[in-house]
Amino acid sequence: MTREYKSNTKKDQNNSEVLIVVTWLVSKHTRKNKRNKLKKGIDRSIIIRTLIIKLPIHSNSIMWNMSESRHVSRKYHFTESQAKEILKDILPKTATLSDTENINHLKVDSNAEPPFVCKLDNSNQAKIRFLTLFFGENDASFPENKQSVPLEEYKANLSEMIQMVTDPKSKYYSKYTKIILITPPVVCDIMWEKRLKEFGVNTQNRSNTCAKIYSDAATQVGKNHNVAVVNLWEAFNNRIQQLFDTDIDTSLNEDIVGYSLDKSSPTFGFDQLLSGGLHPNKAGNDLIIKEVMAAIEKNYPELCPENISFTIPICKNILQTLDVVNLWEAFNNRIQQLFDTDIDTSLKEEIVGYSLDKSSPTFGFDQLLSDRLHPNKAGNDLIIKEVMAAIEKNYPELCPENIFFTIPICKNILQTLDGTKKK
């Protein structure tokens, strides 16, 4: 699901049906010379990582893969100051009338029979259903840290990114786009200090207090612009409080579960939601998704999964209207027939090429499959038989005996000719 969204918007910037787009920055190192071999020099480049969530969401958890973030270039600090500029390349520009005319050939006949009706909206507005702005974790670092962004600048950057989409005068304006502003979550000072020391850094550069200040600032920006806000700092703290209020299962072992079970520990609760005291782990990301979905339900109920119609029918609905040849069932029925049939004792396995022992786990399979995977001649004969049976049952007018030949078949031509038949 991760793609460079900039290239995608060029291909389909007018009819994008993306509902949620989450972006982050990744610095990647390449060490190649002209022959694509490793060399000492490092070419640093910035990569836009995008998570596209298209509702309805059928999974309860979405993990963001930040594995490449370990290749960190000092030139890039992964803050919303950079994102503000890169967002201009991510957002689709409002289409012109000529752009709209160029895609008119994609229209589908409104009288077409379902489920193959494709509802394409050819309006001249670039469309992204949801845009989440999730920044502040790095911005909230201490001033001496290169990733730090002053609080007022942080607020101004968020406002500018929101106005890119909401201001009618902006070339990125889209009245269809709903914005969800996500604040930075909590920081566990002790866990993060320990993680820094593992990397040889002895100076603390973040705190939970600073994270709250930036979280409150982001919340205020969202209110000022009347956009939905997911306050992760508050949500994470509420979850930690719930853990404090819940009795601990005494059968658990810290070494097995991987987090503290001692409520007097300063890391209790934090280590169930954070990795290293800063980045959300699986449970933390589960909580983020839960909060985002709750914000959608509260602020944009018309865009909840259950209230959204599909632009293109989902597969299972199409299959319900079609006749399906179930080869798995057909092959298993044939194998069962072989089990129920007496074996000709005059046959020899070396000659026929398949097992004659019904206790063998390959019995029946090796009569229909080649290398236990691909159908052999007998398997393909069964496939043809099942397909022809489906045609006869569902489309009898297309059975061979009911079809008129456009050109007479050879034997009929020969019967009408005088003289010697030619090969």
From TrEMBL:
Molecular-function annotations in GO: hydrolase activity, acting on ester bonds
Xref: InterPro entries: GDSL (IPR001087), Iah1-like (IPR045136), SGNH_hydro_sf (IPR036514)
Pfam family, one: Lipase_GDSL
Domain of life: Eukaryota
Protein name stated in the entry: Uncharacterized protein
Source organism of this protein record: Smittium simulii
Organism classification: Eukaryota, Fungi, Fungi incertae sedis, Zoopagomycota, Kickxellomycotina
